[in-house]
Amino acid sequence: MRLATWNVNSIKAREPRLLAWLEEKKPDVVCLQEVKSTTEQFPTEQIGELGYTAATHVDGRWNGVAILSKVGADDVVRGFAGEPGFPEPETRAISATCGGVRVWSIYVPNGRTPEDPHYQYKLNWLAALRTAVAADLAAHGDLVVCGDFNVAPTDADVWDPAVFVNSTHVTPPERAALAALLDTGLRDVVPTPMKGPFPFTYWDYRAGMFHQNKGMRIDLVYATPKLAEGVGAAVIDREARKGKGPSDHAPIIVDF
């Protein structure tokens, strides 16, 4: 199975790029985040012409996640039990069984600043996600949780740790939440960087950050051990971050 995850930062803005990318890379399953669309706006027909079934969890202007699959999308669940809201639950998680593998596409809350109420919402959301994933693991042998986690697991996953002092994405509670998720029985599938020594997946649009490779690894793929041991290749597609009108994230492609 070839699985990909990509924060597209608006599927409307990125639709031509996404369709061309799907034709070129031919993933079996694609997890999308920050879709920013309604159900009616989502290009289900165009994606279907490429052989994909689309399962979506969207609500319009903000957030939104989806799973595209050529190998079926059964038992689709939008959101998860106990999911907190801000104040109401948002469109941040969707799961489905694709080709016998339970796949989650998630878009973790940003947190804004450690002093903002959104930060505690982020921690609460990650704690509830852990509980939900642990329950899903008990029911499925093969499982992958992937998407935009908005957390860099270690200092090696940001271009300069000093720049992020007192910022979200790197605080000990956020990183502890990721460690707790891994403790359910998952492994971090770290992709190979195409440039430089660090596997960054996100670069701010401003100040030429991408061209200077001043990025972060916040898009993650967590898989059960059996799947992780069967990884043939895992790469970050930097080419998809280039050119006119890209997302600020690059897709990760994993061949299981």
UniProtKB/TrEMBL annotation:
InterPro entries (UniProt xref): AP_endonuc_1 (IPR004808), AP_endonuclease_F1_BS (IPR020847), Endo/exonu/phosph_ase_sf (IPR036691), Endo/exonuclease/phosphatase (IPR005135), ExoIII-like (IPR037493)
CDD domains listed in its UniProt record: ExoIII-like_AP-endo
Site feature (Transition state stabilizer) residues: N150
Domain Endonuclease/exonuclease/phosphatase: 4-249
This protein's record includes keyword Disulfide bond: no
Gene Ontology biological-process annotations: DNA repair
Positions of the catalytic residues: Y107, D148, H249
Binding site for Mg(2+): N7, E34, D148, N150, D248, H249
Coiled-coil intervals, chain numbering: none
Keywords: Hydrolase, Magnesium, Manganese, Metal-binding
Cofactor: Mg(2+); Mn(2+)
Swiss-Prot/TrEMBL site (Important for catalytic activity) positions: D219
Cofactor note: Probably binds two magnesium or manganese ions per subunit.
Record has Metal-binding as a keyword: yes
Any one GO molecular-function label of the UniProt entry: double-stranded DNA 3'-5' DNA exonuclease activity
Site (Interaction with DNA substrate): H249
Family, similarity comment: Belongs to the DNA repair enzymes AP/ExoA family.
Protein name, as recorded: Exodeoxyribonuclease-3
Organism (species): Asanoa ferruginea
